[in-house]
Specification:
The chain has 490 residues and is mainly α. It is built from 21 helices and no strands.
Length: 490
């Protein structure tokens, strides 16, 4: 059940909101957590009910380990808890990858890789962070129901953000407090913006991008124009798909009065790769820094150890995204770029030009180029496929009028449509404010707009009109079904 699907927008979400808000208005606080828990488990079970038991096993096991750590914060128990989580993730996500590599080296193993359970990468990292925080006595575990909802809360369960118990638990314990109007209005705005990004930019770009990468992974060569469309098209598709999910997750959570952390903040406007990782998948970057890079020593043991830690962290970050050598290589690329960035920062500091506007503008262009080219390895299933895209890009400079005419005659790619869509995407990325800034501006310039939205949504006549509008939206969604969010695969 996708956030952008008819079933979610017209059935699941309205029903859950109706029950939640009725209970809240009647003061039935004791039922709010159970309703959200049941709704979240139903949401997950719709994908594949068999793995609901794996999810609950993971939650129950980590809760018990956490309770023990709270009473006896021993490093041995923490280590065992982390190992249990990693073994679970390793079996389902990496066992098949390991066996395939053993076979490729001449080994003889027979193993049928299990189907990857949805969201296992996210809820595993989330619970590892929970155990570490309990061990460090940063948090105090309250009730089982609050912990269960912390893990399974459906807006963030499938593809993040990676949330912390210390951030969500206080909100779950105060669901009855305060007015919901401000968060409800902002939630609808975030949901609408995310839906627009998904349906009108990310999914249409997939129509151009997917056939190109399928072709190169199958060993076919592509034209220079296809290479450009594949490279830049995926760069924009991933941006709008991931930011759409982030907006919709924040928006849906706000409809229930819960605030999730921002996970995406105009990363293509970053002036360095260091800044990029402070803007892209922010909660993953924070997790890798706080629970991997710093425990390995961070930057406290000399420059050589610092860069080694950076490289290992990004390598494992790449592997977290997927069980393939292309993801590992992508992670190493980013590790190398981070090291170069730190070295350049030291040079600029010595020259006294740190913060120079020209350097910043050039940095934005170079960072965008480096990040976008690295996405080719992120998208391609094989190295030969990725290299085929790069090979096609080297031919851009030698394009002639004759080759363009020949390409148009022998290829079905709608070049004009792709260019128009890419142009729109680039303008939105580099010219327009992002969703968080846009909604902040709306709040600055419009007094109590969220209160009016909330009151209107509760009015019977307006509710009927909104229902009619969503009905016609549903018909459009049925005509053009939404594609799965890309980060669901990781």
């Amino acid at each position: 059940m996708l956030f952008s699907s008819v079933e979610f927008l017209l059935i699941f979400l309205p029903l859950l909101l109706f029950v939640f808000h009725i209970l809240r208005e009647k003061g039935k606080e004791q039922y709010l957590l159970p309703v959200l828990i049941v709704g979240s488990l139903v949401f997950y079970a719709v994908w594949d009910w068999r793995y609901i038991f794996l999810l609950l096993f993971s939650v129950f096991t980590n809760y018990q380990i956490g309770k023990y750590l709270q009473r006896n914060p021993t490093k041995l128990i923490l280590t065992l808890g982390v190992i249990v989580n990693l073994l679970l993730l390793g079996y389902f996500k990496y066992a098949g990858f390991l066996v395939d590599n053993v076979i490729s080296l001449g080994g003889s193993l027979t193993f049928e890789a299990p189907i990857l359970p949805l969201a296992i990468s996210f809820f595993t990292f989330q619970q590892i962070a929970f155990l570490v925080d309990v061990y460090k006595q940063k948090i105090t575990i309250t009730s089982k129901s609050e912990y269960l909802l912390f893990v399974v809360f459906f807006p963030q369960l499938i593809a993040g953000p990676i949330v912390h118990y210390r951030d969500l638990q206080p909100q779950f314990s105060q669901l009855m407090l305060g007015q919901l109007a401000p968060s409800f209005g902002k939630g609808l705005a975030y949901l609408a913006i995310g839906l627009g990004k998904k349906l009108y930019i990310a999914d249409p770009l997939a129509v151009y991008v997917d056939p190109i990468f399928l072709a190169v992974d199958a060993g076919q060569s592509i034209h220079a124009i296809e290479g450009v469309v594949g490279w830049m098209g995926y760069t924009m598709q991933l941006y709008f798909d991931f930011s759409a999910y982030g907006d919709m997750a924040i928006g849906i959570a706000l409809l229930f009065g819960v605030t999730l952390p921002i996970n995406f903040n105009s990363p293509y406007k970053a002036s360095s790769i260091i800044e990029f990782w402070r803007r892209w998948h922010i909660t993953l970057g924070d997790f890798l820094r706080d629970y991997l890079y710093i425990p390995m020593g961070g930057s406290k043991q000399g420059w050589l150890k610092k860069y080694n830690n950076l490289l290992i962290t990004m390598l494992l970050g790449g592997l977290w995204h997927g069980a393939a050598w292309t993801f590992v290589f992508w992670g190493v690329l980013h590790g190398v770029m981070l090291i170069v960035n730190h070295l350049l920062n030291a040079v600029w500091q010595r020259l006294g030009v740190e913060g120079n506007k020209l350097l910043k503008d050039v940095g934005i262009a170079i960072t965008f180029l480096g990040v976008s080219l690295s996405w080719v390895f992120f998208k391609a299933d094989t190295f030969t496929g990725a290299l085929s895209v790069f090979d096609s890009l080297t031919q851009v400079g030698s394009l002639s009028k004759e080759s363009l005419v020949q390409f148009k005659a022998n290829n079905t790619l709608d070049v004009f449509g792709a260019i128009i869509l890419l142009f729109q995407a680039l303008v939105i990325v580099f010219v327009f404010p992002n969703s968080h800034r846009l909604i902040t501006l709306m709040g600055d310039k419009t007094v109590n707009w969220h209160d009016r939205i909330y009151r209107m949504a509760k009015h019977p006549v307006i509710a009927v009109c909104l229902g009619g509008a969503f009905f016609f939206l549903g018909k459009e969604l049925l005509a053009v079904p939404s594609a799965e969010f890309l980060y669901f695969n990781f």
